[in-house]
Amino acid sequence: MSAVQSIADITHIPPEVLYTFVRVIVIISAYLLFRPHIEELFRRVTGTPDPKKAALQAQLDAMREQEIAKTRRRAVKQNARTET
């Protein structure tokens, strides 16, 4: 019985250490959960653009330019057909 008792004494965690550990886990979890929201608020306050949104906007603009160029080429072809 003394061996079992000594193992129990070794594995006993003081409440202060346990509370500190739980606080650290809660703080890390809250940060990971709310990180996107915190970053967005920080960007709004500082006026820094979101890199992901900027990249998506650039791709969208490029696609629109391609579509405009394609439409212009079609119009030029149609005008050339009607003139001949």
Describe this structure in words.
- There is one protein chain.
- With 84 residues, the chain is mainly α.
- It folds into two domains: 1-48, no CATH class; 49-84.
- 89% of the residues lie in helices and 0% in strands.
- The chain has three helices and no strands.
- It has helices at residues 2-11, 15-46, 51-83.
- The mean pLDDT is 85.
At a glance:
The protein has helices spanning 2-11, 15-46, 51-83. The chain is an all-alpha fold.
**Secondary structure: helix percent:** over 70%
Please give the alpha-carbon distance between the first and last residues: 107 Å
- Number of helices, where a helix is a run of at least 4 consecutive DSSP H or I residues: 3
The shape is: rod-shaped
Quickly give the structural class: mainly alpha
> What would the average pLDDT be, to the nearest integer?
85
Number of domains: 2
Radius of gyration: 32 Å
Strand content: under 5%
Q: Would you list the SSEs in sequence order as H and E?
A: HHH
Low-confidence stretches: none
